[in-house]
């Protein structure tokens, strides 16, 4: 396939963010009809590279060249999504770029009509979109507002948006993160179909399995550099994994432990959230001391509601909830902290730290009203500082010092800071919501080690994750969440991924197995 | 080629420089309308400087004018730190003044040691009470406090006019709508003979220090900063966000209320409906110029007060409208915003 | 006269429409800005600037429609300041808006004072006269209420339709609604977030200024200090009440106008028992009540108050 003339060439792309080199002189060539996977860890620079290609960022060096009509290659104007679109490059972002107050069709035609045109009707646009849906199999209600659509449907609108512009190159950034394994299969079929018709596809992923399943060629990025490129057919799974990670990482091992007394009991709990994605229906869950209960599910199936409930940020609208064997009196973040619940939030930048405040203040924030940290309402800065110094030392938080603002820290170090804050209180229950998302391998291993150590000390852990590898490695039991309902899947030793995948799509335990 | 490069953190000296630069930039920009009015720019500014700081009396007038500005500036600074957009300083100032007059113009008679604290407490309470409504409307119903506090300014002013034409009207006031005078016992003492400086200035300075300590050294201040910088993370970590917001609202309202007390019980001696030439709004500018730092508020208030007093004096000498002062105040606010933006970047010359 | 009888008189409804007119301009202007994601608290000052600039142009010899254009241009200019500060620079929309209000009002007052240093009574211009449209103006009731108004009132009605048409029926309106909900959607489709937002703020500010012009060129014939008197802030509350829809904005402004007209008439009826200020407070209190009533359910443009930077990380 590579003997065809290329449709796109990335030539020595380099991009720095401050001291961080996100892309270091990256080369990539793309031919029509091929699916190239861009494989790499979180933070390897995959999304940055594609954002440069699409004009969201401007490269510090290097150029993007696209095939012109005359059979040659011409430079793409940097920093202009408009120019990228005009050159036939379309991108499906990981965070969808849809206006939720508009319909699917409106999102598709947005920017394709002359802005100053006075109304001319959309019959043609509708017909074209309908034809594209038929040809690609991406069926979706074009007249429904985006906020009425499911995540999978939104993704279809995103792909249609690109196809509507007759793109020659389609970039998909982590498209399977929001899909069940079965939905992902459906997407792969669509991509193969489109590639067969001559579309060049770039598929960004950090999941080795799906890259092997869908791509013709694999380019591996690590720490901003392209470290390898090979034909998928000739690829060796083990070798690619080593390329991607760069070093051997010891898998965390879970030692067998006898669970203790219940620390969290949910019994038929309902949470009526703003929409289906933030609701729970009759959820029951038991977490005991010395066990990790993994919650598997496609994002947007009620994980947010479950997390808010365990964090003390939401109260059940029905059913019973008990902490440490006692009914919960106050559903309030502070009361939960005092009851010995450690909370690791999903969005660590947004909910985890106050970026403008110092590392020391962020370590102490849950304890600021506790004796020892304040006297008569005046803060004991010496106590806070020594606590922070201990945290920095014991948890290896890389930062300029305890007085540096927390926003200067990298994602991994913010996560270590949060772990230091919540685990040093000797919690009885730990809520870890996507604790390793976006972290590099080293930081991931560190988070896993800390959670396992807390389990051995006697804490019960609720681990909410979209990473099945992580769930299978750490959990004593896996519970699947789908459409706001919880279903016990069992210990990972007795499970296979296919079963969990089907349960994530809403099948019962029995017919999934 | 000129490039802007984001800074990781902004050093303190740069922040100060940016603020001073903003003040200078405002004066430069306002030179345009001065010149358009047909007056020499340097002459006008020289007259302003002389009018504001040229003599002991001029300086005392500036400090007198700075007194309410320190308090309304603190009110805005505390609220804005928590991202509570209290634009109602003007109304809270009038509420404080009205309460001071209600208590201090003869309704109660007691020695000064009792009356002065009582008048202060009454004014602070009135200002604080006025903030309860907007705070609850924000927290319970999600109503934007900017709009509610702004609209309440008009309601309070009408209420003051109603009281001054009705139950609180001074029968000896020759028909003018003004309140009965504040009694000697309830008045704030003068600080210096032959000037209008009054103890309100001391109160303002002490409160500026107190607010600085509150923000930097106490649990409440910690929580206010956390809520203001990232309410979601603060809530997640167990900071009582609602209680903190209410607390900030009350403190902010009380500070603005005290500004009103000072004006009636320290300066004017009675209440009229033109007591404040926009001290509440100018307080916002003071707070922003100060970078929301309580101690910075003192300097910023003196600068703005100097502009007001100097512009009055320059206006008498040259005939240029004293709305020039408001123009400088407004321009300073916009300049300080831009200055704050520029400090976040390093300007690099060289090839892109 | 009985209180309820007031509601049946032609005069009352004609007055309601008159009072509503500047609010229609103001709410339309505010909703255009906010639909694009920018809160424009400069509105109060932009009203003042429009009132002063329009009046002064006519006083200096321009014809009335040129005056309206001058007012709109002045509004657009202050809108541009707010747009530059809040869109490419991404500064606080709250503080910048307050700053623009302070600047626009103080500059208007300064220019007025400088141009007319020692007048005791404000000079007058010949303002817009009520129109006489054949047939329509002669209709019973509807005629005097809707069609014997000044041209600016009729323009306000027309602009409601124009703004609604642009927002819901043109690609430009589609882009404005999208940029206020999710700027990334617009950027990813190759349009400029900043151009759309700045354009909307400038255009919206022009509309606001026409509301100010109505005050000095139609409702009155002179410029007074403090004549805007919170109308701009009320428009911000009415915009939430109108859930950012032009049709509902018209309705909200008319309801407000009717309430205000009713309040004035009530004052003459029962004014002997209550001080006039009680009545004068009512419009402000009503606006607060309207805001509180809808704030929780309000469907705010999702990206309002959130600045957007290209290539942000």
Write the layout of secondary structure elements.
The complex is a heterotrimer of chains A (513), B (352) and C (313).
Chain A: E1 8-17, E2 20-30, E3 35-40, H1 46-53, E4 61-67, E5 73-75, H2 81-86, E6 89-92, H3 104-109, H4 123-136, H5 151-164, E7 169-173, H6 181-196, E8 200-205, H7 208-214, E9 217-222, E10 225-231, H8 237-245, E11 262-271, E12 280-288, E13 292-296, H9 303-311, E14 318-323, E15 326-327, H10 333-338, E16 341-344, H11 348-352, H12 359-364, E17 374-375, E18 378-379, H13 381-394, H14 411-423, E19 429-433, H15 441-457, E20 460-465, H16 468-474, E21 477-482, E22 485-490, H17 497-504, H18 509-512
Parallel strand pairs in A: 3-8, 3-9, 6-7, 7-8, 13-20, 13-21, 16-19, 19-20
Antiparallel strand pairs in A: 1-2, 1-4, 4-5, 9-10, 11-12, 11-14, 14-15, 17-18, 21-22
Helix pairs in contact in A: 14-15
Chain B: E1 2-6, H1 12-36, H2 41-53, H3 56-81, H4 89-104, H5 112-141, H6 145-165, H7 200-217, H8 219-229, H9 231-236, H10 241-268, H11 279-289, H12 294-318, H13 323-343, E2 345-349
Helix pairs in contact in B: 1-13, 2-3, 2-12, 3-7, 3-10, 3-11, 3-12, 4-5, 4-6, 4-10, 4-11, 5-10, 7-8, 7-12, 8-10, 11-12, 11-13, 12-13
Chain C: H1 3-6, H2 10-35, H3 43-59, H4 64-86, H5 93-115, H6 142-147, H7 151-169, H8 171-181, H9 183-188, H10 193-219, H11 231-241, H12 246-270, H13 276-295
At the first level of CATH, the class of chain C is Mainly Alpha
- Spatial order of strands in the largest sheet of chain B: 1-2
Largest sheet of chain C: none
Cα(first) to Cα(last) distance of chain C is: 67 Å
Fraction of residues in H or I helices of chain B: over 70%
Mean pLDDT rating of chain C: 91
Ends distance of chain B? 6 Å
Shape designation of chain C: globular
| Strand runs of chain C, count | 0
Largest sheet of chain B: 2 strands, antiparallel
Strand content of chain C: under 5%
Note the run of SSEs of chain B as H and E. Answer: EHHHHHHHHHHHHHE
Give me the CATH architecture of chain C, please.
Orthogonal Bundle
CATH topology of chain C: ABC transporter involved in vitamin B12 uptake, BtuC
